[in-house]
Write a structure and sequence with these properties.
The complex is a heterodimer of chains A (729) and B (158). By secondary structure, chain A is of the alpha+beta class. Chain A has 23 helices and 22 strands. Classes of the chains: A alpha+beta (729), B mainly beta (158). The interface between A and B is medium-sized, with 25 and 19 residues.
Amino acid sequence: MSDIDRQSMMEVFTFEMSHMLEQLEQIVIEAENSYTADQINEIFRIMHTIKGSAAMMLFNNIAAAGHAIEDLFYYLREKHPKNINNSKLTDHVLESMDFLKDELTKIQAGSDSDGDPTGVSVKITEFLAEIKAANNDGPPVKAAAPAAEPEPAAPVAETTAAQPVEESESVSFGFSTDNLRVFNATVTFQDGCEMENVRAYTLLYNLKNLVHDVTHEPEDLIDESTIEIIRKSGFHMEITTDKDYDDLMNILSGTVYAKDIVLNELDLSGVSAMPEAIEEKSVQAPQAEAVAEQPAPAPKPAEKDPRAEDTLMKQMAEKALESEAGTVGDSSVATKKAPVQSMISVNVSKLDMLLKLVGELVIAEAMVTQNPDLEAAESQGFMFESFRKESRQLHKIIGDLQNTIMSTRMLTLSPTFFKMNRIVRDMCKQLGKEVNLEILGEDTEVDKNIIEHISDPIMHIVRNAVDHGIEPPDQRKKAGKPERGTVTLEAKTAGSDVVISVSDDGGGLDKEKILAKAQRNGLLRKSPSDYTEKEIYQFIFMPGFSTTEAVTSFSGRGVGMDVVNKNMEIVQGTTSIDSIKGEGSVITMKIPLTLAIIKGMTIKMGGEKYTIPIDAIQQSFAPKMKDMFIDPNGNEMITVYGEHLNIVKLYEFFDTPEAARDIEDGIMMIVENGDDRICLFIDELLGEQSVVVKPIPKYIKKIPGVSGCTLLGNGDISLIIEAAAFFDR
Amino acid sequence: MSDNYDSDLMLDDEKPDLSSAEDLHLVFRIEDEDYAINVAEVADILQYSKLRRVPSTPDFLRGILNVRGDIIPVICVRRKFLKPVKEIDFETCIVKVQHAEYLLGLIVDKVIGVEDIKPEHIKSPPNAKLSYANQFIKNIGVVDDKVRMILCLEKLIF
C-alpha cells in the first residue's frame, strides 16, 4: 500500500470523524437535560465507531478518550441508572468532544495527534464512578468492575496497534529470499464491528513489513462496497513469507475484532510460489465475485455527504433500535446501508471546474444561437426554422444541466445552524441566562461557497442576540416575560434568495444609545434627527461599535458585527434590522442562493450594455411626461399606478453623456430592494438571459452600483448592476 | 538588432541567441520616446480592440477587455504619463502585463520589439526628479546608442 492509499484512508477517517462529532454534538445538545434511550444508544454507537476507527488509524489517544465515553454510555445503556446529573454529563461529554475536535484539527492540519487523553478519560471515569455510587450500584467492588470491564477492548486495540509495529522494527530487515513459504489466510471479523475494510487495511499495513509479499482479496479496500464482501466471506490473503506457521498466526491473531482466523500453508516449493498463488487466487475469485454481485451495483462508495446526514442519523437511530432489540445482524445492517452507498464524495475543485465549464457552455450557446451571421441572414428573409427549433431544445438541455450542476453544490444549512446550539448553550452557562434556541428551516439549501461565508455572521449575530438581546432572568421576570428567552434562527428561500433571520425576544435595540454612541465616535454624516430607524440600527455593524459597557468573553468588543457586513458584501447579501424596544429584535440577512450564474435583463444605456438581475426588476414600462413631477429639491418622481416613486436616471448615476435624455425616448424600470422601490431610467431593453457572473478585476476599486461583469453572447462585456446601490444614497 | 527596429511585431521570429531571459525587454513607444518592460512581466501583446468603459473610474483606466474569457482592466500609458491623447491607429497595441496577482493591459502607441539590454548598459536615472512622469522610470538602458527608459510596472499601474 502506498502513502496515497494511507492518505485517502486518512481523508475518509477525518471526514467521518468530523461528521460523527457534529452528530454527536447535536444529540448531546438536544438531550441536554434528559437523555432518551435512543439518544444514549446513538451516542454509544458513535463513540464506539470513533474509538474503533481511531484505533484502526493508530490514533491511540483518540481511541482512549472515545473509549472512556463509550464506557460511560455503555453503563447508562445497560443499567438505566436513575440518579444522573444530566447537565454534568453533558458538560463531560462536550469537554471530551472538544478534546477529540482538537485532535482532529491537528490531524487535518497534517500534524500528529499528540494530545493527552488522560485528563478527559479520568474525569469521565470518575464521573462514571460517581453515577454508580449515586445509584447504589452494588458494592464498591462492582462499582470498580464496570470501569475495568470494557477495558479488554481498549488494550486489544492498543496492543495490536502497537505490537506489530514493534515487531516490524525488529524483524523487518533482512528477509531471506530462499526459504519462502506461502500461506493462505482468511480473517473474518466480529459481527457489527464496522469498517471492516479499514480493519483489513490496518492488518495489511502491519503485515507489510513482516512478510515478503501479500496479495489479498478483495483488492480495493478503499471502496466501501468491499465491506460487504469482507463481512460475508472474510478477508483473504496470500502471504509469502519466511516465517513459520506459528509466527504468522501470532501476528494475525493480534487483529482487532477478529472473530476467526484460518491459516493454511500452501504446499509448494519457493520457486513456483507465485504462479501457484495466482491459480489459487483464481479459484477464490468467483466466490468473491458472486458475493460482490449480490448487493445492487450501487455507484461507488458511500461518502457521507452532509446532505445524507439526516438519512444517516435516521439510520443510526434505526440501528440503535435494532441493537436494543438484540437483532443487530449483518444482513439487516447491510440492507439498511444500501441507500447511503449511492453517495460519493467529489473534490470541490472538480465541481468548480464543472461549473466554470457550464458557464462557458451557456455563453457559447448564446454565441451560436444569437450569432450575428444568422441574424443577418434572417433579416434578409432566410428562415432557420429547424435550427431555431433544435436550438430551443439545446437551450433546454443546457438549462437542465446548469440546474443540476448548481444543485450538486447545494448544501443544507443544518450543520451551520446546529453548531449554534452549542454556542448558545455555552453562553447561557457562562452568562447565567436561560435561552432556548429555536431552529427553523435548517434544511434550506445554499451554494457551498455561500455557506462558508455566512457561518461566521450567523454565529456573531446569535452571540449578540444571547449576550446583548436576551436579558437576565430576573430582569425578564420584572418585564413580565417568561424567564427563558428565545432566540429563533430561521432560514427560508424567497425567489432566488435565501433569507436567514435571527430574532430574539429580548430587550431590543436602544435607538438613542446607538445614536449617541455613533455621535461620540464621529460616525454621523447628517443631523441625528434625520436618521431613520433602520439607518440607526445599521450602526451596530460598524467596526468597533458596541453599545455595551461590559466586555464579556463573547461579545462587547465591537468585533464581530462588522464581520457580518463584510461577509455579506462578499456574498452580495443585504442585512436589515428591526427592533422594538422591550420586545426584541430581528436581524435578517438576504443572500442570493448562488453567485455563479444569475438570470439577468440586459439593457442598453448610452451605447453600453448592462445586466440587471431579474429578481430586482418588478416591471418595465414606457414613461409618459405627464406622470412626472419634480420636488423643490430637484428630485424627479413619477406616478405609477397611483404610487409615487423616485426616478434614478442610470446615465446620471454612471455619468454617461451619450444616453437618451428625453424621458419619453427611454424605458422606466421599477427596481426593488427589500421593501423599497425606485424607477430606473434606461435607454432600451435587450432581453433576458442567464449570465455567468465574473468579478470585476481586483485592480479596479469597488464601483458603486456594479457588482460584477459578464460576457454576452457576442463576446461583449456587460456590467452587472447592483440594484441596492440606488437605494443607499 | 537594430535592423528589426522599425518592423512590426517581430516577437515570434525574433529569438536573440546567447542572451539570458532576464536581459530581454519589450520595447514600446509612447509619443517620441521608447520605453521598456522586462519580458518576465509581459504576458501577451494584443491588437487594440474596443474596451468596455467602466463608470466611476479614473480617466487613465480606459475600461475592461475580454481576453479569451478573462476580464482584464486596461490603462492608457499616455494618460498615465499625462501626455496628449492620440487617436487609436493600426499600430496601437495593448500589452498584457502581470504584476503580482494583477493582470492588466497597457495601451501603447506602438510595440517596437524585444531587445536585449545587458546589465552593463543599464544605469540608474538621474537623482534630480524634475517632472511628474519621472517617477515611473526604474532605470535607463542603452541599446545601440538609443535610450530605453525601463519602467517600474508597479509605479505605472498604481
